Structure formats: C-alpha cells, structure tokens
Fold this protein.
Amino acid sequence: METKVVLDIIDYLLIVGVGLVAGFINVLAASGSMLVLPLLIFLGLPASVANATNRVAIVLQNMVAVGNFRKQHLISFKLTWPIAFSALVGALIGAFIAVEIDEKYLEYTIASLLLLMFFLLFFKPSAWIKGKAAGAQGLSKTWQLIIFFFIGLYGGFIQAGVGLFLLAGLVLGVGYDLVKANAAKVFIVLIYTPLALAIFIYNDMVDWRAGLVLAVGNMIGAFFASKYAQRIGAGFIRYLLMIVLVASALKMYGVIDWLFS
C-alpha cells in the first residue's frame, strides 16, 4: 500500500505542535488522538495510513508516561495485567478489521466516531465517572475480561477516544479511583498498541516520517502531563476538542467542501 505523502517543514512543525497537545491530553485525560487523526488526514494521508501512523506516537508517548507513573507508584501491574491481556486480544482483532476495511468506509467510520465523541464530551462523561469513582465496587473478573476485550477491539480498530472507555471500565468495572485508573489506562494502551502497530507495519500502512515527528510532540506532552498530572486541570481541553471534532467530522463527510464549492 502506498504511504508516501510529501510534507514540508510547516507541516512537520504543525504535526509536532498538535502531537504535543495530543500527548498531554492523552495522558491527563483522553481523546488526544481526536486531534491527530483529522490533522494527518487534512495533510493528505489516507484515513487508513493516518489511523496506523498515529500508533507510532502512541507507543512512544505511553512509554514515557508509564515510566513516570511507575516512579510515582500509581500503577498496580499485578492487578492490571489480566485486563490488559484481554484488551490486547481484542486489539489484535480490531487491527485486522482496520486493515481490511475499505478506505472510504473507514473515513466515514472515523467521522461518525468523531461526532459520537463530541456528544460524549458534551455530556461530560469524565465528570460522571469521577462522581462514580468513590463508590465504585467493580464487577466480577469474568465481566472485567469481557468488557476490556471489547474496549481493546475498539482501540485496535481506531484508537482515538479509547481513553474514555478505558477510564469508564477501570472505574466502574474494576473499581479503581480516578488517579489509578488514569495511570492504568496508559499502561493498558502501551501493552496492546505495539502488536496492533505491528499488523499495520506488516501491511505497509505506516508513514514513518510523520509518525516519528508526531511522536516527538506526543512524548514531550506525555512527559509533562504524567509528571504533573495531579496539579493540572483538564477542563479547558473539553471545548477545544468539541470544536475540532465537529469540524473534522463535517470535513470527512464532505459537508464543508460542499458548502464552499
């Protein structure tokens, strides 16, 4: 599959900048990839290549974040491994689906998911999850494995927005408090993303230059978010994401092109 796109220095600077913001958002809250996918597609990458290339930055970003969270003793590896493995199995299946799906259908799927995430952000799911965190008891081990299999399936397929589902699953399904859930979320994504990425690499769907440039920004953002996570508020991120989600979805559906044609 052809993955080469000619980008100039301005494009790469833009990718680094958006990557920095996305890495910060991904670690501090969720849905930073909702900024990255529309940008890569806008710069000319096919939707399938953008979807694959984003994983390069996600892997490196989460290596940085997990390292910082580990130093702060915020991740219980023993408790998180079983659900991380379940998510890994789902993610492998999701990645295979993403590889096989028609390019146009993938673009429409991404656009639809962007709109879905807009409504999720509009109704403040993170606030609801936070409110439930104090009394969360968790589900049985079997149900936890089932839930995280399907979350992994989604993450392997698209990745963008999976953080919200992971936070909900970790708080409501496992019983973690919000701080530990956020750290565990980053660890789970680090477990399944490399193997999902390997499937995209095998199918020649990764633009390495764009992916590595994006990773520089993501890693810087992830470093500061994971180091100072407990001191930073995430409220200002919500409105920025909502605007970008709607504009990007309308662009992918062709509505914006139609309005200005």
Observations:
- The chain has one domain: 9-259.
